């Protein structure tokens, strides 16, 4: 199944893709896929930037990518980075003929260090894993274009959080509310979101 299939007016193509990804995640016991509320927001953000470049840190099985690809036009590009092959291979198989995606299998921190040395910058960075969110966040934010978006989710307690993780989240929210050169808003919605726009 491919997101290059033109979505039907009732969104059934996307719904089918999400159903496939949900079933695959259940088979793997993977419980960290994004929620639909965030997906709808991501789809709007990318739809506002035709021909845009978008980055997802942490592919999982591709649930966020499904929403991103549904909002992207044909000239847009998505880079999605994931450490675990058994997760990302689900996304690769689901979207394998979509030329808009570059799937990167590897450690997000290593990828971020290489990416900041390259010229490409992104209209939206969805930082959905440890690198870019809880460490090396400065690198991920450096990759956002002026007036681009930096998006964080899962700021409310989630299944599978390690012990003591709430303190990391509290620090993250506090740090993000006073970052020079950015406007940030905590949105008490969905899984707990933070939306940030670069000056
Ligand atoms: C919250 S999930 C991503 C969910 C996905 N963005 C979505 O919308 O459904 C976080 C993902 O980050 C991956 N991950 C963990 N450590 C990583 C690292 N160092 N580099 C890249 N990915 C990592 C995990 O394997 C997991 O799939």
UniProtKB/TrEMBL annotation:
Name of a matching Pfam family: Methyltransf_24
InterPro entries hit by this protein: SAM-dependent_MTases_sf (IPR029063), SAM_O-MeTrfase (IPR002935)
Alphabetical list of CDD domains matching this protein: AdoMet_MTases (cd02440)
Cited SUPFAM superfamilies: S-adenosyl-L-methionine-dependent methyltransferases (SSF53335)
GO molecular function: O-methyltransferase activity
Coiled-coil ranges (or none): none
Name of the protein described by the UniProt record: Uncharacterized protein
Protein's organism: Tessaracoccus flavus
């Amino acid at each position: 199944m491919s997101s290059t299939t033109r979505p039907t007016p009732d969104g059934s193509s996307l719904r089918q893709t999400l159903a496939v990804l949900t079933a695959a995640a259940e088979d793997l016991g993977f419980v960290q896929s994004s929620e639909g509320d965030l997906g709808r927001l991501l789809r709007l953000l990318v739809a506002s930037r035709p021909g845009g470049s978008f980055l997802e840190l942490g592919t999982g099985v591709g649930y966020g990518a499904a929403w991103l690809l549904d909002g992207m036009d044909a000239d847009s590009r998505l880079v999605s980075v994931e450490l675990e092959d058994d997760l990302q291979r689900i996304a690769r198989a689901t979207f394998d003929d979509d030329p808009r995606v570059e799937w990167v299998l590897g450690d997000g921190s290593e990828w971020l260090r290489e990416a900041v040395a390259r010229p490409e910058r992104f209209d939206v960075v969805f930082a959905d894993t440890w690198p870019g969110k809880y460490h090396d966040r400065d690198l991920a934010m450096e990759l956002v274009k002026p007036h681009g978006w930096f998006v964080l989710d899962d700021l409310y307690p989630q299944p599978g959080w390690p012990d003591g993780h709430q303190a990391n989240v509290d620090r993250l929210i506090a740090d993000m509310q006073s970052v020079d050169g950015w406007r940030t808003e905590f949105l008490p919605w969905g899984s707990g979101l933070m939306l940030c726009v670069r000056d």
